[in-house]
Amino acid sequence: MAINPGRTSAWGARMSRALAEISGLQCAPGSLAEYRDSARKSGKRLPDELEDQECSICFAGAEIEGISRANGSTFVFEAESALPAMPVGSEMRLKCREGSLRCLVLGAEENRLRLARAPNRCERRRHTRHPVEGVAVVHFPEGREAEASLTDLSEGGAGIVSGCLLEVGEPVRLFLRVAGLKRISYEVDGWVANCKPGSGHGFCIGIQFRDLPEDLKDEIRRMRQPKHPE
Predict the structure, then answer these.
(1) What are the pLDDT digits (tens) for 98-107?
(2) With contact defined as beta carbons under 8 Å apart, do 139 and 33 qualify?
């Protein structure tokens, strides 16, 4: 899996603006190549252009220091000691003196990660979200649980609202009860893709699914079908 932004002008414009905000550079919307040129003229390089470089990764509330080496469109991050469990597909931020970059985990060993630049939010969404009503119980590996309201559902994940702050990248198991579906509940494994404060009290949380049960996939697909009046 090699993620290579800049293939389209729309992608390049979004990435340029995002990277400009991160680094503090002012740059007009354009291709990623144009942004790189602007960065070089300012004496800066993006993290994926650096060779052996001291850096850190931010994951699940922790910051871990190590060395990052660029390898084409991917990176290898190596820590001095063993890393916590980081599921493939989870998101983190790679930080170094030259800037920071959102990354996805492609592979993990004891003290080494293989990372790729994360696509932007618009490009990343592949599945249609369906507004739903329901409840969810979030179960964590260490045994604690958190209750939440279910707000939307897709084949790729679910949106929930909870009073608990969840760490991005944290693995979870969801117990879902969706109003109107035949089965009473579904059990799904996933990880926390994003978590941000809601408009009221609580947090809006995006859960990325791993292996979605086939029967739940069928139910979600049926949500896309138009309902004909009898």
Answers:
(1) 566 778 787 8
(2) no
Query: What's phi and psi for 123, nearest 5 deg?
Result: -70, -30
DSSP state of 141: T
CATH topology of domain 125-224: Thrombin, subunit H (2.40.10)
Euclidean distance between CA atoms 137 and 182, whole angstroms: 19
The predicted-structure confidence for 112-160, as pLDDT tens digits, reads as follows 888 877 655 544 456 777 888 889 999 887 788 889 999 998 888 899 9
Fold of 9-31+45-122: Thrombin, subunit H (2.40.10)
Contact 195, 168 (CB under 8 A): yes
Say if residues 221 and 214 touch (Cβ distance below 8 Å): no
Work out whether strand 91-96 and strand 112-117 pair parallel, antiparallel, or are unpaired.
unpaired
Dihedral, CA of residue 23, residue 28, residue 32 and residue 35, to nearest 10 = -50
Nearest in space to 49 (alpha carbons), one of 18, 24, 70, 23: 70
Label residues 89-127 b or e (16+ Cβ within 10 Å = b).
Answer: ebbbbbbbebbbbbbbbbebeeeebbbbbbbbeebeeee
Helix (H, G, I), strand (E, B) or coil at 102: strand
Judge whether 55 and 67 are in contact, CB under 8 Å: yes
**3-class DSSP assignment, residue 36:** helix
Q: What is the domain partition of the chain in residue ranges?
A: 9-31+45-122, 125-224
Cα gap 47→101, rounded to integer Å: 7
